[in-house]
């Protein structure tokens, strides 16, 4: 049985934590999921770290980022933190972020969030359950999450 | 009994440390609070680290950031530092910052500071006392601190 | 026998992992290669770390970076992470990245990716197999990967 | 007896190390000061680390930063480094920096440097000798170093 | 006998490694120098770390940085890495970088590289052999490497 961690935020405007939970359960029927909800993106790294301390084999974090330059600096520091958690634990923490300035219309943001959370939850299951070769068939294929695939350049 | 740490600065133009202390006491009547006042934001990470060394179960830091690009780089390095403290200790350090360019009128800055410090002090109590599920009901709800909630996208 | 790690992504639009594998095999006929495919660049550091945990003497990572400022921040956090992996393990992780805005025409991007992945795979073999003096003859020669060499200034 | 470390640079255009040494001696008459002079700001973190290795209870670093964007990136990496030293040692490293573009006239730069180095040397003594409550009376008072105090917002 | 490490790159357009080696030998006649040549600046931190693992008392790294914003982000991540190496080992790693946009004419770039590499190699010898007070006489004197000294402000 595999243990997955899901971390989401109250700042987010879409419940991506629920999407990730549902997707993981559907993809891996021998698993346990632990969910951790924090205020904002800068709280994601410690929650991921704690979930790994408590036994998670891999974690998905789901963050929502505002439009200002300051929000982008918060994104940068969060990204560095999430990478450090992974380096120190040798566990994957798949980092899903939706940026409020990715689209003007709320429907588009919802669609991006759902697509990105779903695809990356599947990526997490593959990496945790099936290991380092699980995504080999897609290497260099220009896959995108939240958008249409860009495709391979011939 | 829970132990909370509160770190604030002499650079700040609002006494957010007092606000945080009052709020924590009101929210959690079986707690001890340790306060640490430092000059500016770049001194926050070590103070948070020391409070955790001394037994705090979680910390709130309250920083005030100036208007220049340099202040923003200081914000960035501080954010990275606060995230590293959390990763190394597996304890929450909730990071409240008010940026002097968030509003033109002093009254608005005061209001932002009070709202943000209060709401995040409550977040800290919930996470420390009630754990990883304490904010689950607000996941994806678009909560904001310092501003009106943005709300969930339908 | 030397052990090399190769990490590539599904985000990439060129299969640089295959290029690196082929090049390493051609350069070093007494070696074992372990490949790890991850979704995007921010997943590279933990994969490199795990390959080193599993015995790799050196790793090459092959990332593809988008055009937006956000992609550049992801590049920055990934670079910091890859450098931290190296510092903590004292092993080389040669970091190949192709940026989608390096060229307008897809053919040029493909050519850059092939040239850069090939040359850096050779660099990795030299450093891992032949050590700290293996590139001495090229010191200060203005070598470039992905572009024509800039050359030494007289 | 307390042990203070003072780190300054040959890049600086004002001898802030002397100012800091004089101020610390005046503020704390039962102390030992160790001085470390390095070339530029990026050398400050290791010097602070070494002084703490050698027994300093707290350190003040005094850096001078040029006008270009590159200088600002050096400031950023130095700031991250100084914060990491503090986190790893649980000791204060008060970071004084003067930026050459803070003022046009040399007299103003000298005045800023003197004021900032003096006030932060006093801050260091208070934190090291008198502890976490020593600056409590100034919390939220809008103190500034190098400039007139901004004051508390009512 | 002191042990110095010299790290340079094949990306550089001036052989600064040779300049540093010659200068160190001339300054310190009881020393051993170990040279490490890597492809580019992002490979400098691990090489410095390995040289220290192998016994170097101090290291000089000699990097060449391109003109684009991306090159500057690579500079930033490298700088953070070099500072981390120093913090983790408590050894000096003097970081010489020449930026291709510092001058338009190649002759000027060569002159800057020679001056900077020479002066910082001397700085390294002083710090490693003569310790924390060796540069005290130059504190606050506005020394520059690569350019004329800026001088002390009166």
Automatic annotation (TrEMBL), chains A, B, C, D, E:
Keyword Transferase: yes
Gene Ontology BP terms: riboflavin biosynthetic process
Gene3D superfamilies in UniProt: Lumazine/riboflavin synthase (3.40.50.960)
Gene Ontology MF terms: riboflavin synthase activity
Keyword Transferase: yes
Any single Pfam family the record assigns to this protein: DMRL_synthase
InterPro entries named among the record's database cross-references: LS/RS, LS/RS_sf, Ribfl_synth_arc
Recorded superkingdom: Archaea
Pathway, per record: Cofactor biosynthesis; riboflavin biosynthesis; riboflavin from 2-hydroxy-3-oxobutyl phosphate and 5-amino-6-(D-ribitylamino)uracil: step 2/2
GO cellular component: riboflavin synthase complex
Reactions catalysed: 2 6,7-dimethyl-8-(1-D-ribityl)lumazine + H(+) = 5-amino-6-(D-ribitylamino)uracil + riboflavin
Keywords: Riboflavin biosynthesis, Transferase
EC number: 2.5.1.9
Similarity comment text for this entry: Belongs to the DMRL synthase family.
Name of the protein this chain belongs to: Riboflavin synthase
Source organism of the structure: Sulfuracidifex metallicus DSM 6482 = JCM 9184
């Amino acid at each position: 049985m595999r243990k997955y961690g899901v971390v989401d935020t109250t700042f987010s405007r879409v419940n991506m934590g629920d999407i990730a939970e549902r997707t993981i359960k559907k993809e891996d029927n021998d698993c346990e999921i632990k969910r951790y909800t924090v205020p904002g993106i800068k709280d994601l790294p410690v929650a991921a770290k704690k979930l790994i301390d408590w036994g998670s084999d891999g974690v998905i974090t789901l963050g929502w980022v505002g439009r200002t330059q300051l929000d982008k600096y918060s994104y940068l520091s969060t990204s560095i933190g999430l990478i450090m958690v992974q380096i120190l634990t040798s566990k994957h923490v798949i980092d899903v972020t939706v940026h409020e300035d990715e689209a003007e219309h709320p429907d588009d943001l919802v669609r991006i969030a759902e697509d990105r959370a779903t695809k990356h939850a599947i990526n997490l299951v593959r990496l945790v359950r099936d290991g380092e070769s699980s995504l080999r068939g897609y290497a260099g294929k220009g896959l995108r999450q939240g958008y249409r695939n860009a495709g391979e350049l011939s």
